Amino acid sequence: MSQYAHPEVLVNTQWLMDHLEDPMVRVVEVDMSPESYKDTHIPGAIFWHFPTDLSMPDFGMNLDPTGIEKLLSRSGISQETTVIAYGSYPGTGAFIFWFLKLFGHQKVYVLNGGHQKWVAEGRPVTSDLSNFPPTSYQATSPNPDLRVFQAEVQASLEKTDCVVLDVRTPQEYSGEIFMIKPPEGAERGGHIPGAVHLEYTHTLNEDGTFKSVEELHGLYSSRGVTADKEIFPYCAIGARSGYTWFVLKYLLGYPKVRNYDGSWNEWSRLPHGLIEQ
After folding, report:
1. Where does the record place the Rhodanese domain (predicted)?
2. Which terminus of the chain has fewer CB atoms gathered within 10 Å of its CB, N or C?
């Protein structure tokens, strides 16, 4: 079996088990609700609440470097800390990889299989809350090479060498349901015209680990998502598409991938934005 393009960005459960007491390793769990973290998190893991720590009231991603500095500082993370990311939702760790790389953190890795595999193997969990001495973290401005903006996505719709990749559920893609519906009701259902649909969970094995290189190549190429094209993944709020950015760029080595983190949360509210259902 071929190796991933960058296998070094993944750690397995045994590696993490062996490094739980390492003071230079910080395990980060990210979830939508504190309840999922409270009783069954990995020992030493700190908790980031997605709605309050990583997003804004309008569900857009919080990309303010000052806010990120506060989050990492209170988490006891310095520029030299090795961060291992995971969550109870499939692929959460890969999204955090994109998010921290966006702000220049170098030592970030994804727990392959995440919480699901850790628990399935009978490894220790705890309800004890973790606290670490604060640091003085200094983040960089968001790296523009990791993002794509709405205007460029719009312009790409006429290009044959670009793929807009919708990684939401089939029901979201068709406009049948909304994953996150703003209170003002301004969001419309459907997808970006011409967007290729491939739900992000198809890239995972049943145990939550990533599929092989051969399987991933076959999956994406069958939809016309190939390494010679520029790929713009999107989802509801940029998290699942951040995961897809990680898979394409770090596991498969696609050179031209940028996350449309504005995603459907932004596109669906454009007054004159084109939408297909």
Report:
1. 21-127, 158-276
2. N
CATH code at position 26: 3.40.250.10
How many angstroms separate the Cα of 178 from the Cα of each of 142, 168, 190, 265, 272?
28, 10, 9, 10, 20
Per the annotation, the verdict on 162 as an active-site residue is no
Q: Rounded to whole angstroms, how far apart are CA atoms 78 and 70?
A: 11
* End-of-domain residue from the set 95, 113, 142: 142
Helices of type H across 121-273: 150-156, 170-174, 213-221, 239-246, 263-267
pLDDT tens by residue, 97-136: 999 999 999 999 999 999 999 999 999 999 998 989 999 9
Question: What single-letter amino acid sits at 224?
Answer: G
| Domain-terminating residue out of 99, 117, 142 | 142
Question: Does this model's pTM top 0.70?
Answer: yes
Residue 253, sorted as left (phi over 0), alpha (psi -120 to 50) or beta, turns out to be left
pLDDT band per the 50, 70, 90 thresholds, residue 2: low
Domain tally for the chain?
2
Catalytic residue, candidates 85, 216, 231, 235: 235
CA-CA distance, 29 to 264, in Å (whole number)?
A: 25
What is the dihedral sign for C-alpha 69, 18, 118, 35?
Answer: negative
Per-residue confidence (pLDDT) for residue 184, from 0 to 100: 58
